Amino acid sequence: MSDIQAVKYIWKNGELVNWEDATTHVLTHSLHYGDAIFEGLRAYKTADGKTAIFRLKEHFERFKKSAHMLEIDLPYTVEELCEATKELIDKNGLKSAYIRPILYRGYGVMGIDARTCKSDVVIAAWSWDAYLGDGALEKGIDTMVSSFRQRAVNAMPPAIKSSGNYLNSGLAKMEAVRNGYGEAIMLNEDGKVTEGTGENIFIVRDGALITPPTSDGLLEGITRDSIITIAREMGIEVRIESLLRTDLYIAEEAFFSGSAAELTPIASVDGRALPKEKPLTKRLQKEFFKLVQGELESHKDWLSYLN
User: How would you classify the pairing of strands 272-273 and 262-269?
Assistant: First the structure.
């Protein structure tokens, strides 16, 4: 995982500010209580040399929904945030980028109920290569099923992409890395597979693509939705059904999906190697990258080009 690479500007509360000036107070409410919401999305250099952001509007629509569910005031429209993101990438001269919008309750009020607290909105973007490490997209990564369970849907709702939810993920990720694995897979309290620490999960069984339902306690991923859509268009059977950890052990193929992880194959689970040949994963991966790089005629509406 590469470090953050500083660029010139960050967008904060309606204006571009210098990277080093995008600061906040140590008594910022969300720093203490984790009640911030965020998104992760990518911009790609397309085949014609232009820059396009993948499913920009859909990410900010989910951002808006998360803010509504967490009762944080979002003082900008989806359209304004989309335009701000385009401007930010253009002004920073980025051809490809990872993009991180965040909305948080700011300084001025302390206490658990801080709905009167003023909110801050920030969008940052920087160059970021393969999230799960060099070679992961080609070779896949080794994974373990974490001893930490996924937070319950009525305790920390996974539909809200909140900072607080990822404390759970952080514990699982550190456990996996400490034990020599590249990523963790999390189960819910009923023992059903949910997702990775920051990615959705798919397996292949009997030639069909299977991913767990959101009701099992996972984020409704935008990349997940994209993979389901393009797989069905390619004639691949897709099923949304619950999975147990033993389903992972005997999968013909498995992979993670997400804006950061993109489409990363899984090489093993709990020391049990999956087949080295991953034909369906490779087909989907190839189609996905052709799509985000503007090489397909389908789903052109998923790409937002810079002005």
Answer: antiparallel
Q: Note if 161 is an active site residue.
A: yes
Q: Does residue 132 register a pLDDT over 90?
A: no
CATH of the domain at 108: 3.30.470.10
- pLDDT recorded at residue 236: 97
Q: Does residue 1 lie in a domain region?
A: no
Please report, for the domain that includes residue 244, its CATH number.
3.20.10.10
Of 12, 86, 161, 192, catalytic: 161
- The 10s digit of each residue's pLDDT in 96-122 is 999 999 999 999 999 899 889 999 999
Instruction: Please state, in angstroms and rounded to a whole number, the distance separating the CA atoms of residues 293 and 45.
Output: 6
Three-state SS sequence of the chain: CCCCCCCCEEEECCEEEEHHHCCCCCCCHHHHHCCEEECCEEEEECCCCCEEEECHHHHHHHHHHHHHHHCCCCCCCHHHHHHHHHHHHHHCCCCCEEEEEEEEECCCCCCCCCCCCCEEEEEEEECCCCCCCCCHHHHCEEEEECCCCCCCCCCCCCCCCECCCHHHHHHHHHHHHHCCCCEEEEECCCCEEEEECCCEEEEEECCEEEECCHHHCCCCCHHHHHHHHHHHHCCCCEEECCCEHHHHHCCCEEEEEECCCEEEEEEEECCEECCCCCHHHHHHHHHHHHHHCCCCCCCHHHEEECC
